[in-house]
Amino acid sequence: MTVLTQHRPGERFFNLLTVIRHRRQDALGPWSCEPGETWASEELGNGLRLYSMHASFEHCRGLVDNILKSATLPIDGVEIRYEIEPVPRYHRAFRDERGLTDAPLRSPFSGHSAEIIEYWSFASEARRHWLDVLDTLYGRTPLQLSRLGFPLDRLTDRAGNLMIAGAEDAVCSDLSAQHDRTLMLQVKGDKLLPGTYRAAVWASHSGNEMLRREIPVMREQTEIELASDVDHIGFAIFRTADGQCIDLMEAFLLKQIGGQIKIDSGSTLLFRDRKGRLVHEVSPADPSSGIDVSIDFENTELDKKIRQEWLARRLHEREAAARREGNFERFGPDAFEDAVRYFVGLLRQDSDQKTPIYLADPYFMTELTDDSGRDLRLKKLCIDMFAATVGTPLRILCTKKRQGPDDPAPWWSSLPEQITAHVRVRSFLNPNGERRGFHDRYLITPKREIIITHSFNGWQRGGVTFASLPYDVYRADAERLWSIDPDSATADLLVREIGR
């Protein structure tokens, strides 16, 4: 049993999450020590304290009954407050090795799925305090929280809950993919009677289902032959009596190319297929040793080509979806004018407010000294940008290295004030004045935050991509940089205003 609590000086302790983990098979208990019914506690910082105890399930169940009656749990003289609903919710948590953010609640047991009894809390205080802690940690939760067996930093809606997780350990099962196109379902269980369980096994390659089969569950292992490479496998175990799924696991496979060379004494080259079968042997003239080479005589080119086409299609679909949502555009080096029109269009859409627009481009102050085609295009781009933002403060962040009283005025100083009066440009360098104070390129308008992959002077050489983000991370960064007073003696950055 583990209890995560939070408190502030002078305030009561309250529950952030309580998790009880138990297994029905006593011989397979998850802890090596004997139940002692003694609490251990550890301070985690930020007002967090973690209590843990190894005890019998009956003892823990009795503590839950007392919590439901009194809304408190006394531990070593500390009274922890609970605000939970008295009626529990029953559900299941399965194993999942896909690592997807939209995956359901994962089992707190690495080798078993779990039956969950959960008492929910709808008190806003615990959830608000937990979110405040996550903000101070910037997403880095203390390592000790892994002992909860629950990702409370990701599933913050569970803050304040009490959860009882029972491992479905009547059978222990696993599915693995062998290099020779074979799936191996391994099942162990002391009371595994024939016909008690059935299994569904599936596998796919590049989005195409290669296998979905129901098989009887037998002790030890079941081998399933495949006709193709696979990159995604899964299985589910069902009780025959009521059809309940008691274990489920899915995993993506890492696609890689492997080879093996084994050198033996001798004078023969032995060629073997993926299953280790000898398919050919050659005796070179006057060799110094024999080499056993693992090769593949089976046709895998079809699977590889299909996977490449599938990856290309996924890339196209995601890019097309981003374009439809209006948060992604890509322009090649030969589409400079189209990129300029898109960029200026973004400015015009959001330039009807008094909130400043920020443009960060380390190389914005690239010298434009003549009227060559390249320089003229960049000057026109800047003029269009100035004109599109008239009436809205335009704040440009750059990293001009050489600055002094003898520096010439910026080239746009000769433009009419009508299109430049709202423009301010500042340079940000490290205190020594040699290294650039930032590197990212972005555009922050009153309504959106956009990453720009290249500086203006690189659009004609490497193209440019615009990608909108929902995070407002760069907005906060731009406001922080701009809040530093120019020529400040105490600033971490050397800030200079250009053209003023």
Topology:
Layout: E1 2-6, E2 13-23, E3 40-45, E4 48-52, H1 57-70, E5 72-75, E6 78-81, E7 89-93, E8 114-119, H2 124-137, E9 161-167, E10 172-178, E11 182-188, E12 197-205, E13 208-216, E14 220-225, E15 232-239, E16 245-252, E17 261-264, E18 269-272, E19 278-282, E20 290-294, H3 301-324, E21 328-331, H4 336-349, E22 357-360, H5 373-388, E23 394-398, E24 423-429, E25 442-444, E26 449-452, H6 459-462, E27 464-469, H7 473-482, E28 494-498
Parallel strand pairs: 2-6, 2-9, 18-20, 22-23, 23-24
Antiparallel strand pairs: 1-2, 1-4, 3-4, 5-6, 7-8, 8-9, 10-11, 11-14, 12-13, 12-15, 15-16, 17-20, 18-19, 21-27, 22-25, 24-28, 25-26, 26-27
Helix pairs in contact: 4-5
Determine the mean pLDDT. 82
CA gyration radius, whole angstroms: 32 Å
- Approximately how much helix is present in the residues? 10-25%
Distance between the termini: 65 Å
Count of individual helical segments: 7
Biggest sheet features: 9 strands, mixed
**Overall morphology:** flat
Which secondary-structure class do the elements indicate?
alpha+beta
Low-confidence stretches: none
DSSP summary, beta strand count: 28
Percent in strands: 25-35%
